[in-house]
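User: Modeling request: complex.
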Amino acid sequence: MNNEKETINKEEAAATLESLASFKRDATKSFRMPLLLIMLISLSYSLIIFSYGMSEHGNMWALGALIGGAAFFIFIAFSVYTFRLLGIKVSVFPKGKKRIVNELVLAVIFGVIIIAGREFRLLGFEFSPHIAALIAGGLLAYLLYKYPTGEYMTMEKKND
Amino acid sequence: MTKTPFNTMIHAPNRLQICALLESTKELEFHIIKEQLDVSDSVLSKHLKVLEDADYIRIIKKTEFTRQRTWLSLTSLGRKAFKSHLEELKRIVGKI
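Assistant: Request completed. Predicted assembly structure:
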């Protein structure tokens, strides 16, 4: 290992960064969970948001939220367990400042969607839980598909 | 901005890729990294040994369901070194 260069020029550094980004993009694709599982997780999450938005004292939608919550955690646990059997242990808690900030921003976005879905219905906009569930489910499916390892910052585009 | 040192230990293509893979997960099994890098067991073991000696990765052998599994993870020192090296590469390119 003593014959390794102590530094490199601009072109070599750019080529290294480019090849590393390309390698990571390909690797991330292979870490992607099956589409059916992504759909089931997103649908159960949508069910939680929709049921919460529709629930009142006199109806049964709170049960929908409970069923959705149970299904959501079962599917998540199943995916984590399957990944583990395949040889991949995913990070549940984010590491690094950027990751933590990203996760917090996402938590706020999902929080706003769930609250808005219910509050707008109480203000008289009947279809707000439907829209909130659709947006949240779609966003979750997109994130699970596009960023299976939860790294939102490292997937730089070719010309960044 | 302070200049971070160019890390020859990490810069070798395979070692850079190993660190990149481990950075995005908590732990990965030996065979997953081998498949991703498309290298032989001996080549991968050699690179892992270099990283382990530098205390950049942790190698844990466990028996799960009667099967021997080798789990690899980045240490906090390795995570820091990989991040610093990427920053140095970006600095050379002129991105930061």
